[in-house]
Amino acid sequence: MRRLILLSLALTICLCFGQAGEALSTDCKVMVRPTSGQARVVCLQVVGDGIVRVRATTANVLPDKRESLIIVPQTANPKCHISETNGTMSVKTARMQAVVSKQTGEVTFKDAKGETLLHESSGGKRFWSYRVPDREIGVDINNVPESQRNGLSWQLVFDSPDDEAFYGLGQHQAHELNMKGKNEDLFQYNTKVSVPFVISNKHYGILWDTYSYCRFGMAEDYLQAGHVFRLYDKHGREGHLTGTYTDSNGQQIVRDEDSIYYEYACPPKSEIANRTDNGGTKNLPKGFKLDGAKVVYEGFIEAPKDDDYQFLLYYAGYVRVFIGGKEVVPEIWRTSWNPNSHKFSYRLPQGQRQQLRIEWRPDGGESYIGLRVARPRSQEARNQLSIWSEMSPDMDYYFIYGSTMDEVIGGYRTLTGRAPVYPKWALGFWQSRERYKTSQEIETTLAEFRRRHIPIDNIVQDWNYWPEDQWGSHRFETARYPDPQAMLDSVHRLHGRFMISVWPKFYCNTENYKELDKNGWMYHQSPADDIHDWVGKGYKNSFYDAYSQGARKLFWKQMDDNLYSKFNNAKTMTAGIDAWWMDASEPNVRDCTPMWYRKALCGPTALGTSTEYFNAYSIVNADAIYNGQRSVWQGRPNEPRVFLLTRSGFAGLQRYSTATWSGDIGTRWEDMRAQMTAGMNYSLAGLPFWGMDQGGFSVERRYMAAQNVWNETGIENEDLKEWRELQTRWCQFGCFVPLFRAHGQWPYREPWNIAPDNHPAYKSILWYHRLRYQLMPYLYSMAGRVHTNHYTMMRALVMDFGTDRNVLDIKDQWMFGPSLMACPVGEYKARTRSIYLPKQTGWYDLYSGEHLAGGQHLTVEAPYERIPVYVPAGGIIPFGPEMEWTDEKPAELIQLYVYAGRDGWFTLYEDEGTNYNYEKGKCATIDIHYDDTARKITIGNRKGSFPGMLKSRRFNVVLVAKEAPKPLNMANPKGKMINYSGKEVSINL
């Protein structure tokens, strides 16, 4: 309240300092009214020793704003020093300083020594008045007051040195890690998660508090090729390209193409779309059947200047691109209903015609293709840190500084909320498919895992467990699920956990839709445009407005009445449903529509237009479930932990015990590789728990055909060999990310459905399942550290080895915690791969114990059954017992592997694993330190306790050294045994 009073006081005073160049300061806050530039007010406010908030506006005063959806209430009472010169105002803390020019309003951030960390470019604040177009509001336009239609678009630009690298921004599919010089559109879509946070290898981050569509890099959209290049068709005639369409019967259409922009479709019955949008796939040749067709776009492009041109290829089906006779995009594929974007650059000389050829096989009755290009910009402009926001009340961002990237992410979570300790079973294996269709399939699948002794914790019920016409009822169809309670009891008897899919989508005929709608909590554009989905005959539907607090409470009540409390065991105080799969939380009301129409479909919201609140749906939806489930238990003992898995994400999602998976990706090697950078940048965006559809979701037809051949004949053809290797390599990859989860369309992804028992695919998958479970003490300690220390589990190498410039853009290696560097294999038939060992330390092969010097590029063995994994000198890895579920047995004996060459530290974290008693201090930690000079291990005093804690245990310490390599042996390695009872113990190794 004190902070609110001071802010109100500052705003009141601001009304009085009306002359340009004047300034005021109050309680770690300064305001200036610049004499030049567009910003009329710029405000700096210290939030913490390493965090400064900056606001700016073109109005005379900063606007009053609603409570942030991103920032949680801040409790710190920072100390600062405010100083003023003739030209500047500054706020200084113990760690940093922020300086604002009274003349220009430009802001500079410095460290405690006065060294510049980040400097706003000249004219780096740019503003445009913005009014939401009518069509983006849609049918409920009369419910939107004029005040909610008006705001600001803004761009913020900082200078950046050549050796700087940028990361974060969420999860994107272009296989990019270092975003310096790159462009990224920030919006939510299936396979795309956008987070308004960027982090630098210079140890600062920028978090901007806005919820609209944004862009990183260039502020304007990609352009049609003809707006940048001169176009010529294949015969050399200027003004267009040539399009040749050949259908499955060989019938051909040849026509001129002034652009390649078939990236979306609008519903045919949408009055507003028919009136205002003439683009998209309806401009493809009339009556032409895409499925089975081959399309070629060709001709010549002539560049206006020598430059590296940045292209954006939007595609579904199969596509290849050639420029100047060179293949610049090898064949890529996406399923026709879920297109993807691919970015590439190509240098073109001024004034010279270069052949352009696009080969497209649509692979579906509806499909999409587009090729656009960025307007040329100078290298200096490309290298700047540039952020653009479509619509906000003002410019509002936080500068976060730390001595490490971990500290920067810690500052981000201080602002956006601490992550809870995720349940221990969430770190085990998740088996899913699209989809289990009966309770019997659920029960028999889990039973088969147990019969085969394949470790697993979680089994997942995907969509359509309800009656066909009752999407949103949250009720099981009785013919296929005759006794849901018995199913859940069976899962729990088999020591499994049950996650169920719940969408924010409702058929209009359901009682839940009607109950929400009568309160004004449903979006209406989809029913108004008579949109029917893909199920059965197709049903009218829409999504609920999660931005309304009342809607969130009712949404949870409907879930609770039909799914949660209904199946809880009141006697044992245990949950029937353990986890929630919150699908389509972008929200994705309809696939493949233009951006403006997506806004019409998901708004207006209770807080304002969907244009202003376009990206934040997933966080308010997660709020509904997290706080809803916790309200059921009201703090009672042994309250089950909440766990959500969502297809979208946003800044602050971690505070709701929510993980994100990367959506309906394709079953291709390029998709697998893209998930590596997607997961690293998602983690660098401050969100700690991430996973993917291991093996890919959408399946190429050739793989389906190959599986059918196997089922009918037992013959493993070439496509099936590739399928099995792809699944194997993806499982090996998945072992080293926070969520270890298999999911996808047919062919099924259970290990025995991938390959028979004697196949190397099956054997390797089983081996990595078992490794994952024996790593549980290591994994759960990381999960505890995420909560206590704002730790990041999946760590791009820049986080730990950033002073080695070789690691700044390594896309296919990362640290999984402090002691494991995963190096997955992302190419078919590869039996070796190149790796880089960061120079700061020596490294050990996990499997053999062989020592390798750091600072080397090497080609190493990568047999079918294994991927390279390395441990840094000083690494400490606690291995637990072989288990089939995470709480099957306590880790009474820990095989403690220690890798010589540097001092090492590890903190073992333990609690009950399933409840919130840790919030009351019921948890324990054990600090472990290795002194390399003395070759001594110290296991420190245990701190804390919890019910069921082991009072005593054993540590078998295995020292792996350069002169004494030891292969990995998790069963009975030779080491030195320590009997530990909670008191510090040291031994020489």
Structural write-up:
Helices cover 20% and strands 30% of the residues. It is an alpha+beta fold. It has a 9-stranded antiparallel sheet with strand order 5-6-7-8-9-10-28-15-12. It has an 8-stranded antiparallel sheet with strand order 1-2-3-4-29-14-13-11. Strand 30, helix 7 and strand 31 form a beta-alpha-beta unit. Helix 7 runs parallel beside helix 8. The longest helix is centred in the middle third of the chain and has 17 residues. The N terminus is likely disordered.
Silhouette: globular
Percent of residues in helices: 10-25%
Could you give the count of β-strands?
Answer: 55
Secondary structure class reads alpha+beta
Total helix count?
A: 20
What's the average pLDDT? 96
* Spatial ordering of strands, largest sheet: 5-6-7-8-9-10-28-15-12
What composes the largest sheet? 9 strands, antiparallel
Distance between the termini: 57 Å
> What's the alpha carbon Rg, rounded to whole Å?
28 Å
Beta-strand fraction estimate = 25-35%
Low-confidence segments, ≥5 residues, pLDDT <50?
Answer: 1-16
